[in-house]
Amino acid sequence: MRIATWVHQTAVGSLLLLAVGTVAAQKGETVKIAWIDPLSGLMAPVGQNQVRSFQFFAEKFNKDPRLNPAGVRFEIVPFDNKLSPSETVNALKSAVDQGVRYVTQGNGSSVAGAMIDAVAKHNERNPGKEVIYLNHSAVDPDFTNSRCSYWHFRFDADTSMKMEALTTFIKDLPDVKKVYLLNQNYSHGQQVARYAKENLAKKRPDVQVVGEDFHPLAQVRDFAPYIAKIKASGADSVITGNWGSDLSLLMKAANESGYAGRFFTYYTGVTGAPTALGRNFDGRVYQVAYHHYNMPGAMGQWQNEFRQKLNDDFYTGSVVHIYNILSQAMARAKSTEPLKVAAAMEGLKFNSFSGEVEMRKSDHQLQQPLFITVWQQADAKFPYSPENTGMTLAPVKELPAFVSSTPTSCQMKRP
Amino acid sequence: MEFFTLSMLNGLSYGLLLFMLSSGLTLIFSLMGVLNFAHASFYMLGAYLGYTIAKGVGFWPALVLAPLAVGVLGALFERACLRRLHRHGHVPELLVTFGLSYVILEVVQLLWGRVALDFQPPAALRGPAFTLVATAGEGLQLLWGAAPAALCSAAGAVCSPFPATRGFMMLVALLMLLALWLLITRTRVGLVIQAALTHPEMAEALGHNVPRVFMGVFGAGAALAGLAGVIGGSTFVTEPAMAATVGSVIFVVVVVGGMGSLPGAFVASLLIGVLQTFAVAVDYSLGALLRSLGLEVGPAAAGNSLLRLTVSQVAPILPYLLLVLVLIFRPRGLLGTREG
After folding, report:
1. Which chain A residue shows the shortest CA-CA distance from B309?
2. Dihedrals φ, ψ of A130, to 5°?
3. pTM reported for the whole predicted model
4. Could you tell me the membrane topology recorded for this protein (chain B) (predicted)?
5. Predicted ipTM?
6. What is the pLDDT of residues A145-204, one digit of tens each?
């Protein structure tokens, strides 16, 4: 009996030792992630918020072994790409020269496209020194369809998924009758307009698209002429994928010119927009996103902590997805080598702040639940108030991953 | 009709902001012959100083103090830098102002950060200045301030408030034009300034301190940019890229209007403001134009992105197109006089 217990204990003990021994292969290693996004120019406020988000959560993951099964140390190396594709490629080069093997970027699909190409080229020319591109926010559906790449992983939901969710929501709003599409004139804005038209035609054929406009990205100072045009068209709702100053200035103009319609947006929670909305627009602005300000559980606490520590709001939830999947995949691959980690990330299901999510193997697009929120007074139920506006984005609908999931035509080449 | 009136007002107010911006540049160029590349940076400086002063003592004192501060900085720059370069000709002058624009950008980012500031207009300017009410039967009505909610919610009525900040912007620009015009053509100071430019030796021999006149003019030009900055910054956004975005447009205004011509700058600003605003409303494309001329567009060309580009999409770049056209067909600008 005694001997049996002894044998049993030794067996378990040596198994444990074995397990620890193999985990130790990546344990304590430092994983550098190059952060390449704008820190100057019109979109600098967004970039600055995001680099802080990455640093804030690196600290959280580095401290807490429950969050970080691989036990690695994440470190962020920031580069300013000035929202320019060529600067991005240069930054990627210097990051690789510094020995960084993971890069993240997300602002501007035009930039993300350049990044996908540059990373693919680098990996082809430098076998054994592969780089993985973690796309935190660039939502061009082409990146996981016709232009998909093995080295690109997307953690935001793409435009087609968000529009799928948004139109599923609009389907049940009978007083949406005339819609105006106002977007930035580049791939993202054009796709928002395209998917809005396609999905509305399918789900709400009675809805009329009374106008469609594109304006140059981050060039327009004065949106009053656009609002005058929208009013003249008789639209009761505006669908816009605008972000950064383009959304803030649009909202400012809409408020000043007394436009009374609704807005369906992608990026209301992002820096500047809450201040521009202020106490106006109560119940008139909707946002579709994979994350919101009134998340329950640990995420809610983190958001409050982020606000207290940095006097800013956390809205790029994909940061948490990225650390989650990297740590899970590195623990599974028992390595921080990008080639092995990429293979481990494919098809990985993991628990994140919005429940169980999956990195779809066929196109490297994260499948996740989406939330529709509405701009309204902050109250006891939904207390988090971005930019101290006294208002909040309260969840009105949660769409499970399968609802907003869209098919992919990706046929990627695996190494 | 309502749309036309509103667009006209929007266009004029934007045009008048452009005039406010370019008048200082025109003043400096016409009187000193210096093309000041840092002019938009003085505009930005005005917005940032205005923000900081407004936080301390309120918006209205800031509206006076910030332009004064910018003017003093401009005068100091002229005294310390530009004056030494004057005898070396135009190119060193131009280059030093170009360099200054970078220095100001970096200093602003160091002092105030790279993030946009929440620069609110004062309470008195937050509401609408007046409201245009279009009712089905009675046509267009103008009401001062905000229109009563009952009137706007009535069937067939459309209310279009015109923001007070824009009205204020227009008022200040017009006052600025009047004051500048009176100063240059009707006062002794104006005469001395003009004499100092065309005949500096003679003016000096008559006992006028020509370098000091130049310093004053440069300071005044910078102060005008600063004033535009306080108003523009609180109406639109105050952030480090604001100089770069208006910088190119004000050069367009100055060239289109005619280098150094104040009336020219005025006409050109209004033209560009109105042109850009109305262009937004035009959904015609080159392809549609060809079709209306009776030319059939083939299926391959119909998908061509250039032919499908509508006027509203190119609205923000129209001023630059105008610049090119003016340079080709009337190089001295609309109201400029040929240098001789």
Report:
1. A214
2. -65, 155
3. 0.85
4. Multi-pass membrane protein
5. 0.84
6. 999 999 999 999 999 999 999 999 999 999 999 999 999 988 899 999 999 999 999 999
